[in-house]
């Protein structure tokens, strides 16, 4: 499996792993890519690195957004996997104009379902759907109105 779904899974795996074992980002990425089972295409590796750095750089804004849509729950109280999946999807929805929000939502649901189960997938869907409804960008196409 290659492509964006696998890339998003790698982002979630990396961010989940570093949440419990923080280390210097460049070293952690190097260690992550040294896993011989990972054979990404250059574009997928670049995407993973960009999204990881983006999520980490924008984490305060992402978490503030999540807090508004999780009935004022402290983001740190969410399950670690749900929190990570949500952060990745919200990052894409807010900061990646090349990814339609419905794609981010659908991918997050599938990743949550695969790694955490149906209940988690429903929770992720509910939160992301509420966020998407208030976005000021097309939901099904990349945002070409950057102005």
TrEMBL record:
InterPro entries: NusB-like_sf, NusB_fam, NusB_RsmB_TIM44
Keyword RNA-binding among record annotations: yes
Residue intervals of the NusB/RsmB/TIM44 domain: 5-133
A GO MF label: RNA binding
Entry keyword RNA-binding: yes
Keywords: RNA-binding, Transcription, Transcription antitermination, Transcription regulation
Biological process according to GO: DNA-templated transcription termination; transcription antitermination
GO cellular component, as recorded: cytosol
Alphabetized CDD domains for the sequence: Terminator_NusB
Function as written in the Swiss-Prot or TrEMBL entry: Involved in transcription antitermination. Required for transcription of ribosomal RNA (rRNA) genes. Binds specifically to the boxA antiterminator sequence of the ribosomal RNA (rrn) operons.
Family designation: Belongs to the NusB family.
Protein name: Transcription antitermination protein NusB
Organism: Tichowtungia aerotolerans
